[in-house]
Amino acid sequence: MPRKCKLNPAAAGAAQTCAGRRQEGLLRMADKRKRNIIIFDTTLRDGEQAPGAGLTGSEKLEIAQQLVRLGVDVIEAGFPISSPGDFQAVQLIARRVSGATICGLARSLHKDIDTAAEALQAARRQRIHVFLATSKIHMKYKLKKAEAEIVKLAVQAVSYARQFTDDVQFSPEDASRTEPDFLFRVVEAVIKAGAATVNIPDTVGYAQPDEFGALIGALCDKVPNINRAVIAVHCHNDLGLAVANSLAAVKNGAGQVECTINGIGERAGNAALEELVLSLNTRADAFPGIATAIRTREIYKTSRLVSKLTGFVVPPNKAIVGGNAFRHESGIHQDGVLKERRTYEIIRPEDVGFTGENLVLGKHSGRHALAQRLREMGFDLPEEQLQNAFGRFKALADKKKEVFEEDLVSIVEEQLQELPLVWRLESVEFCGGTHIQPRATVRLRKQNKAVSAQSSGDGPVDACYRAVEKTIKVNAALLEYAIQAATAGKDAMGVVTVKLGIAGQEISGRGTSTDIIEASVKAYLNAINRHLCRCAAKQRVCL
Ligand code: KIV
Ligand code: ZN
Q1: Most buried residue among 15, 124, 217, 282 by CB atoms closer than 10 A?
Q2: Is there an atom of ligand 1 within 6 Å of 173 CB?
Q3: pTM (two decimals)
Q4: What is the CATH number of the domain that holds 255?
Q5: Order of strands, edge to edge, in the sheet holding 424-433?
Q6: In terms of domains, do 344 and 377 share one?
Q7: At residue 502, what are phi and psi to the nearest 5 degrees?
Q8: Domain boundary among 399, 416, 433
Q9: What is the pLDDT of residues 224-275, one digit of tens each?
Q10: Which H or E run contains 427?
Q11: Counting atoms of ligand 1 from 1, which one is nearest the CA of 175?
């Protein structure tokens, strides 16, 4: 039974935003009134489309809850028709997450829209996002449809979606390569059919900032009913211009930007939320009167969470959230920063929640000190989890002289793992050297059953992975392996991320330990456990 949502904040906001933009056209950027840019986060949909980023339902929920703490306005939780797992994840988020509009993607087909509406039904604020390609190349080769038919299908899809909610968003896919006059016609028609938001995607990351900005300006000038909708933009990063294009669009009247944490997404990814927001805040002089609801102090933690759960390591030189983003190496720079921070820093690390490498605790620190420090870092653990984290902290403090905040984050991340660990690592032993063939013995436990196996290999990691495979009898191909030190120093925690190919699927895993071989085995097991959990969820069997 179609359900119509009474609350329609997007539509109300749309009128204001467009009116604001029109005014702005007249007043240019001198207008000092606040214009709120809607932050539409698509980490869980476009971000999750990145090869190997597959997230379980509970992982998506954990990220969605953090996105609410971060202050995003809309969470695109998934593409419900794409798989039963994605349907369940969107439904879970719709049921459990409040504080943001929950959005589901649908092609311009009744079955997609029905499925999205069903998945979103429990959401307090829901949005259905329908899309249909409008560029010549997509219409000719992919859809094999002429312009008139595309307009008809887009209008029908929006009208159909409006039966379920007033908050309908339409995207003319590949808009930046669409004939402008045809784009204006489609946009006008879908607004007339009831779209509260029209999203202009640069689907293949082809646009240049000046031309993309001009396209948004032209939409504002040429589409007669544009004041009745919010203009959104969704930029891909194939030429490294996703953020620049989105900012150009904001300057020309876009009221919503679509983005992902750490910029993950299809191919080269999407515009990175942290880069967009920090540009708007740091260069407020270039964006007068423009604001977002983002709590920037949550950025670093959100970035870490997404990196951990997707298995995508954040490059050290990544803007805002990379490990080196606030580190000064050159003597001249260090000297400058010590004399006056602003000589070489345009952003205060603490403003994005980056607390750096402060020494926080040692082996004599107690449980209260740990709890207090974790709270300051934004982790309020329940008693049982705190106790467990304290045990891990003590074990680490015994091994390491200095425990840094980054180490604590690793401890808590392991602690917060919601996956039932099907197989746990009990022990790993290995030997190797210049003239010795590497050999490993791995002992694993699954509930009351402990099993072990031995293997040789090309190196210690290979030997361990072969031993794990013998033990569990899983056939996994190692597609990617990366190791990073969580902090500086020889005794730093090693963070290993792997991507495995199992049964035709790519799946990521992550493990941490001061011993990098142990971290490697943990990462491998983490990926296998995630695979087993997914299979069990599909077959509804108890592991
Ligand atoms: O890149 C794109 O065009 C998309 C649409 C579905 C908005 O992701
Ligand atoms: Zn996209």
Answers
A1: 217
A2: yes
A3: 0.74
A4: 3.20.20.70
A5: 424-433, 436-446, 449-456
A6: yes
A7: -130, 125
A8: 416
A9: 999 999 999 999 999 999 999 999 999 999 999 999 999 999 999 999 999 9
A10: strand 424-433
A11: 3
